[in-house]
Amino acid sequence: MNLYGVRAIYNFEMARMKRTVMQSVLSPVISTCLYFVVFGSAIGSRMGDIDNISYGAYIIPGLVMLSLLMQSISNASFGIYMPKFSGTIYEVLSAPVSYVEVVLGYVGAAATKSVILGLIILATARLFVDYDVLHPFWMISFLILTSVTFSLFGFIIGIWADGFEKLQIVPMMIVTPLVFLGGTFYSIDMLPPIWQTISLFNPVVYLISGFRWAFFGVSDVHVGISVGMTLVFLSACMLAVWYIFKTGYRLRS
Amino acid sequence: MQPDISVKHLSKVYGDGFQALKDINLEINRGEIFALLGPNGAGKTTLISIICGIVNLSQGEVKAAGHDIVREYRKARQSIGLVPQELNTDSFETVWDAVSFSRGLFGKAPKPEHIEKVLKDLSLWDKRNNRIMSLSGGMKRRVMIAKALSHEPQILFLDEPTAGVDVELRRDMWKMVRKLRENGVTIILTTHYIEEAEEMADRIGVIRHGEIILVEEKDRLMSKLGKKELRLQLQSRLDKMPGELTLEPIELSDDGYELIYTFDSQQEQAGVARLLRTLGDLGIEYRDLQTRESSLEEIFVGLVHE
Hints:
The complex is a heterodimer of chains A (253) and B (306).
Chain A: H1 3-19, H2 21-43, H3 55-58, H4 60-86, H5 89-93, H6 99-125, H7 136-160, H8 164-180, H9 193-199, H10 203-216, H11 223-247
Chain B: E1 5-13, E2 19-28, E3 33-37, H1 44-52, E4 59-64, E5 67-68, H2 73-78, E6 80-83, H3 95-105, H4 112-121, H5 137-149, E7 155-159, H6 167-182, E8 186-190, H7 194-200, E9 203-208, E10 211-217, H8 218-225, E11 227-234, E12 250-252, E13 258-264, H9 268-282, E14 286-293, H10 296-304
Parallel strand pairs in B: 3-8, 3-9, 6-7, 7-8
Antiparallel strand pairs in B: 1-2, 1-4, 4-5, 9-10, 11-13, 11-14, 12-13
Helix pairs in contact in B: 3-5
């Protein structure tokens, strides 16, 4: 295995995060803080508890998940799209690295950035809302699993995209609505029955539900199903990445 | 000795059906400078891209440093450094970081002293902490070369390395390429500057419409396909070409004061001697004579337009 190669890609991507700390870290942290202020403190103070959890605390897992998904996709898609755009991809393609190593480098860095960001947001949330983590192991596990899965998804988008607009389409037009409708700000039990059924087709419901369970021990769906669905999505992304490298889709002619 | 690059029956058909390479067979020896010449779209970059692993081959077999580029791609690619045609660089990285990144990517442990040597050799040492975006085009080209040399490759591909660089930098690069060759590095060069190939190459390959039409040692190519021109400035004006000379490949200039004789460089002795004897017999006197050898460029143009 070309560990130096993996490390080179990983360090290169992490260095990009340092260079763009305003965009990579501060911007999502400030956005999430605004959510805490508006929905947690201002509106939340007039909302009743949900499952005996204060509204401000209840929305923490969903808001962390929102940033996590968006940043994982954004980090990984930009990570692989930029070399394609600037033409420097030739170096990766001509290097003695396998596709597994390329993915480890790019996706590993994107997921690391997301996990760091998630932890920063969690620490920042403490300034606004008091909360405990009931299952820390599972909280970290969900954090990592989701970051890796959506970084892989972002990697696929980065390879598929042939323009900056396409990089934005999936996160803005698909992922954001799914997160907002996936129980970030409410429990799906609060929806009419028909919308509860429809919500179960939203994969983000399972992520937020499982993540919330790790914090408070309450969930919309069983935690086992949440883990299972996340693993299914992870497997689908891995399969897509395998296909991309096997066929050279948009990488090698 | 085993060639450093071995290409057998290589063909490439792109997804849209365009056949870029047709049954290419080529061997490049260790430590030589091989210039691959051809007009735009002839297939030079496709051939290089396949050998380097950027483009998939459709048919055939390619070995680099004795390793199959598909089955043993790690070993094959480790032995290759590539300087692509385009100035593709990471604008926001520093020179040092960019070159160190390349070394790591190619599976080599960090070796700051080697990076330092490469940067010094390429006159980039003073710029090592500069972001690449702040460098001039010529300096960026040097960075591309430094990146390609960062992992100490055995084979170096230079795809139009001096395109758009000034004369001084071009001379520096030639010097560097010769030095690399002295250290045993095999260099494959594509260039539009035929004088570059003429100046540096040991062997020349010409590719046209995806086919290799000629591979020859440069000196032999020059003597085999080269033409010489003998110009005789006459003492007195000639109104027309004397009948005794009409069978020769000779022309009379418009002003009638010059005879221009073109001949194969391999047949120069017999032809020139016969011409001068004939002129003597005819009483045609000349005050000066000059010979000129055709350049590689003229040979190249002749080949690709055949």
